[in-house]
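Quick one from the shared queue. A colleague (R.T.) flagged GRAS transcription factor as missing a structural entry in our internal table.

Convert sequence to structure tokens.
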Amino acid sequence: MDHMNITMKTSKEYLYSNKSYYDYPSVPISKPESKYTQQTAYQSPQYVSSSDEGSYGPNPNSNPHSQPYCTLESSMPPNPNSHNSPSTYSFSPTGGSPLSQQESDNTNISNGSPISVSCITITEDPNPSQDELQQKLRELESVMLGPDSDAPEYYQQYQIGTPNPSEWMQLMGIPRGDLKQLLLHCAKAVEENDFVSIDWMVQELRKMVSISGTPMERLGAYLLEGLVARLESSGSSIYKALKCKEPTSSDLMSYMHTLYEVCPYFKFGYLSANGAIAEAVKGADSVHIIDFQIAQGSQWITLIQALAARPGGPPSIRITGIDDAQSAYARGGGLHLVGRRLAHEAASCNVPFEFHPLDMNGSEVRREHLNIRHGEALAVNFAFQLHHMSDESVNTENHRDRLIRLIKSLNPTVVALVEQESNTNTSPFFQRFCETLDYYTAIFESIDVTMQRDDKKRISVEQHCLARDIVNVIACEGEERVERHELFGKWRARFSMAGFRPCPLSPLVNATIKTLLESYSPNYWLQEIEGVLYLGWKHRPLVVSCAWR
């Protein structure tokens, strides 16, 4: 418990902020040792504070005056035999454009006077050998840089051809075997369409990632899949299948249940939402619950049991369940299966019960679908669902705010909101990649303490329950990107603008979840700030739960 309190205190600086938690790294830059053509592909990114979406300050370890990464352009034409004359080989001095031998008559890099053609002897051989070409280029280098050139050894070693991956990593300042840094560099190259760098980095990354390795190696495999899918514009298809066989409905149900059991994230969300609802409707005779993603309906089993034990007898309960395609597939059938299960539970507890199925996406819901009745205490549940709704950055319909305003117009007794505490909605691609890497590193680490790395079921759980979301965040844009998380500060702004007021969660909810966490790793922590509950792993807040009226 002391350890948990310490962890909670260290996390406090994050929780009061509406900014991203990830300290976006400055991609390390190697200072050039000689005169190269400057490129800007790997300049250190310096982010400044922006909007609610997050603040990206400069890394305190980065040097704002550091030199951009530089490299030597290839001095060798693709095929010497394809040129009519070997006297057109190009070289790029510092800050200049490639020079042919004809241009060298008019330009002197060293002192402003023309370079004499007689300084360089090039044999007009129609089929020069590789050694001859290298020698001529060295002579040209000697003239242009001087006999005492300080060019490093690998400059001459790789005058012809491209440096191998190890040399690339050395030039870019990436420690050998540093998977995280290589992923970040690759993402930056993808953002800047640096296809030469992407090609070798993807090859290196494929050697380093593994779906049965460390948490970073496993996460890296799916992040890499997302980068490749983004380049191939195939993110939407990979989101559906991830280049792997689609599981049967029973298998998918099993994987979802395993994730529910091994990590407390979903239990935390459902328990806190149920606690808020039970507290708000404790005096009502009739309760109507609208669940915007009812899934298997498991959340409501415990609430039905709790309300059945209420002093003075239970209320009548009516649940409107809104479906989603993945849950329907996992169930192996429609919403009638959920209704049947919940009705059976209510009957066993002597609770009057109705179930109203809505087989449609949450973005399609309108007031007339909800069958609101006068005199009912209305509770609305948004558990891990509202981030799927598109907002003003995607289309003018802005279903995210439209739904919030719709619910406000119904005058609900309580609205429960549970969301992942992450910032991936409107962030630029590279920042979104960094945020995803940091967030899911914590998720994969937490799974690692409960499931063996060679456990085939763990692989399936990560692949079918987590990886598709990761690939969607990295690879997709526009309407295809459905994983659009926001930080609590942004949700607070949306609900406040719609006219809602915060409804602090009761201390009983806090105590119940603390008891739940006792059976999990001490790396999990719980913190309450002004009636809002945060669940985190080590340094990282992961899930936030709150209520509104």
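The radius of gyration is 30 Å.
DSSP finds 19 helices and ten strands in the chain.
Added to the table.
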